[in-house]
């Protein structure tokens, strides 16, 4: 083929992309000269070099259309009212009058990965930042969709020169909040089409005459939710490929294009990194953002990284809530007395909806209400870790931790030692956590079983039950029994290992991305995850004021008068093992007035996706411990996080009076429930945890 033919083909190809001959020709001429009449690099990858060169030439001339006032640089006139930027998005017709795709022009190579789709001069209507409403109050999910439209037009030249990337209407995904909000999604984007070389994922259908689409959807919100999905509407009967094959192919093409790539480069990883980066930018606390501090790293570290810990090296624990210690040198902790001032609380009605934790957690925890008018839950003080109310005795002292209660001789990461350390042995002979920071399946399943089928598990019966005594001191009822629960013992400060030790998970605080949201089933506010969570993942603790059981009863009476629901968790795992317990040793956590996100976890009968496991960190006995929530199964992003409160709904005198269950579980135990569709034989009878 001679130079003239090659030039004609190149100009035809450019025309298909919306570049006029006037634009393309001088650039092509220059390129041919630059490459010493060698056409290969010009024709390579569907004229990628040429497109880039034209865009570069445009860049060097470009001023915004609104300022320019003329479109003299273009052969054809602009559609009505469009700006130069718009024109890049909407070339309404080709020079031949045929309807050609409305084009937007990013750099071709980068467009595969959306890299060139960052805010930029020619993407004023579709920038990621621009798409996100600036008001933090806005709870609407914004979606950003990029569609690679494969036109597969065969003009004798590279067949898929017309591949295009379209930013289209937000498209909610089934099962996500975006799907629920449906038409309420605010779309700040215009549809856009970007020319793509056919070296993308759609290449396997380049000969088809029918238009095919590959959509890359990036859904994001002000609250930092990000979901990236890739959808193809290709006819699956034409071919069968696995995503792995696709990734491999794209990876090879990347390698070909960019010449140098790290050996472990993967498209899957790249996509997940894109999501994580968007999430990270959205979830970083402003102070971290500006300082680029280590907290930023920590927040971004996937919690499943061996060391949810690794990133914790060098973190500033003051701000990051890395320790769950109740600070005290007193045997009984009385230095953090919390007094609830109802008047003050009434004056303070709002939370920071961008972060209900007020920066107390490592990640922001946003609040959204897609269904009602209340913008946020009733006021309470957010505390990331437990604080004693008044009389509770939480005896944390170095002196009480004996050699048999810690692993003073360890160093580094206990999980990598050849033998389980003392702390691991305290959990039953082995480490409970995997190197990825997840609770091992066998242990988790046993904890879940105890919680689901308490009647099948062993109970202790107190001689003088503190719970019954606090209800009626004069003539207490016999103890109803306390479940023997399985404990996790984490390494702690008296141990020789470091903060990066894999046997320290809950003490690092929340690392997954959570959101408080208003449920539509009538449960009030609830908690959901914004990312997929594997089975056994730590979600959060239930944090609150530490009360004695007498204080709890007094509060319960007071709250019943005020029509307030209590949000309490009994720490009764070991009440009967040490003989008669003093009232100040029988402890309860109450998150009603001072609490963390754990107070938003709603109840689900039987098949809840969280289980509460007692975790001992700083105290060697089981009177005081942390009530930590772990996932019982894989949980998808945007799923509500639920826990079985262990309520016996048939006990009309008990806590079930508080609410009619609308958990929606097919095993719902509340016979009155309108949403009940089935029944599991037997009742829970309580999982050893009271809930009022
Ligand atoms: C710990 S709080 C959970 C957060 C609460 N939904 C809120 O808005 O603050 C427990 C309260 O949530 C409500 N709740 C939790 N699970 C429920 C369910 N399955 N059905 C109905 N209400 C539920 C009840 O009002 C219960 O007293």
From TrEMBL:
Residues 75-90 have a biased composition (Basic and acidic residues). Residues 60-71, 121-150 have a biased composition (Polar residues). One of its GO terms (cellular component) is chromosome. It holds the Pfam family SET. Coiled coil: none annotated. It is found in: Chromosome; Nucleus. SUPFAM superfamilies: SET domain. Its main location: nucleus. Residues 59-180 are annotated as: Disordered. Residues 406-509 form the Pre-SET domain. This is Histone-lysine N-methyltransferase SUVR4. It comes from Urochloa decumbens. The lineage of its organism: Eukaryota, Viridiplantae, Streptophyta, Embryophyta, Tracheophyta.
């Amino acid at each position: 083929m001679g130079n003239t033919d090659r030039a004609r083909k190149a100009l035809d190809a450019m025309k298909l992309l919306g570049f006029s001959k006037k634009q393309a020709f001088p650039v092509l001429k220059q390129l041919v000269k630059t490459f010493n009449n060698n056409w290969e690099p010009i024709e390579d990858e569907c004229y990628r070099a040429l497109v880039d060169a034209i865009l570069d030439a445009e860049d060097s001339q470009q001023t915004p259309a609104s300022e320019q006032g003329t479109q003299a640089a273009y052969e054809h006139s602009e559609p009505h009212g469009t700006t130069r930027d718009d024109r890049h998005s909407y070339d309404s017709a080709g020079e031949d009058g045929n309807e050609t795709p409305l084009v937007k022009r990013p750099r071709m190579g980068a467009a595969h990965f959306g890299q060139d789709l960052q805010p930029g001069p020619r993407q004023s209507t579709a920038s990621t930042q621009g798409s996100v409403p600036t008001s933090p109050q806005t709870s609407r999910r914004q979606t950003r969709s990029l569609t690679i439209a494969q036109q597969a037009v065969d003009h004798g030249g590279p067949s898929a020169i017309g591949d295009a990337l379209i930013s289209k209407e937000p498209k909610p995904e089934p099962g996500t909040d975006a799907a629920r909000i449906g038409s309420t999604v605010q779309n700040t984007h215009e549809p856009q089409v970007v020319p793509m070389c056919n070296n993308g994922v759609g290449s396997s259908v380049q000969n088809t005459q029918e238009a095919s689409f590959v959509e890359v959807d990036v859904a994001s919100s002000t609250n930092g939710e990000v979901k990236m999905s890739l959808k193809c509407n290709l006819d699956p009967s034409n071919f069968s490929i696995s995503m792995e094959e696709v990734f491999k192919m794209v990876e090879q093409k990347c390698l070909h294009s960019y010449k140098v790539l790290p050996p472990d480069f993967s498209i899957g990883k790249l996509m997940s990194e894109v999501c994580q980066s968007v999430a990270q930018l959205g979830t970083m606390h402003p102070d971290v953002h500006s300082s680029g501090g280590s907290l930023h790293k920590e927040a971004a570290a996937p919690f499943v990284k061996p060391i949810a810990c690794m990133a914790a090296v060098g973190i500033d624990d003051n701000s990051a809530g890395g320790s769950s210690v109740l600070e005290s040198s007193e045997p009984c902790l009385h230095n953090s007395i919390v007094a609830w001032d109802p008047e003050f609380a009434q004056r303070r009605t709002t939370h920071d909806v961008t972060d209900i934790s007020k920066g107390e957690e490592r990640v922001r925890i946003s609040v959204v209400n897609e269904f009602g008018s209340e913008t946020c839950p009733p006021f309470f003080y957010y505390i990331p870790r437990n604080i004693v109310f008044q009389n509770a005795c939480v005896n944390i002292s170095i002196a009480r931790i004996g050699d048999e209660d810690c692993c003073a001789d360890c160093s580094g990461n206990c999980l990598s030692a050849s033998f389980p350390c003392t702390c691991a042995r305290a959990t039953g002979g082995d480490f409970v956590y995997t190197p990825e920071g997840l609770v091992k399946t066998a242990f988790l399943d046993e904890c879940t079983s105890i919680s689901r089928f308490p009647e099948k598990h062993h109970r202790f019966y107190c001689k003088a039950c503190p719970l019954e005594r606090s209800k009626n001191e004069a003539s207490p009822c016999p103890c109803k029994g306390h479940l023997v629960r399985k404990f996790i013992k984490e390494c702690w400060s008296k141990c020789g290992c470091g903060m990066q030790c894999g046997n320290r998970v809950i003490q690092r605080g929340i690392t997954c991305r959570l959101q408080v949201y208003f449920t539509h089933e009538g449960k009030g506010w609830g908690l959901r995850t914004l990312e997929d969570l594997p089975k056994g993942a730590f979600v959060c603790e239930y944090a609150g004021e530490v009360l004695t059981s007498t204080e709890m009863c007094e509060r319960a009476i007071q709250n019943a008068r005020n029509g307030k629901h209590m949000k309490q968790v009994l720490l009764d795992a070991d009440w009967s093992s040490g003989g008669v317990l003093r009232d100040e040793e029988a402890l309860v956590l109450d998150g009603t007035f001072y609490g963390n996100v754990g107070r938003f976890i709603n109840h689900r009968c039987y098949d809840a996706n969280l289980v509460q496991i007692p975790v001992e960190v700083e105290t060697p006995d089981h009177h005081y411990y942390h009530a930590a929530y772990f996932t019982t199964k894989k949980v998808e992003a945007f799923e509500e996080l639920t826990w079985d409160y262990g309520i016996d709904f048939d006990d009309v005198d008990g806590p079930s009076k508080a609410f009619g269950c609308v958990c929606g579980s097919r095993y719902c135990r509340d016979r009155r429930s309108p949403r009940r569709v089935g029944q599991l034989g037997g009742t829970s009878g309580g999982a050893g945890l009271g809930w009022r």
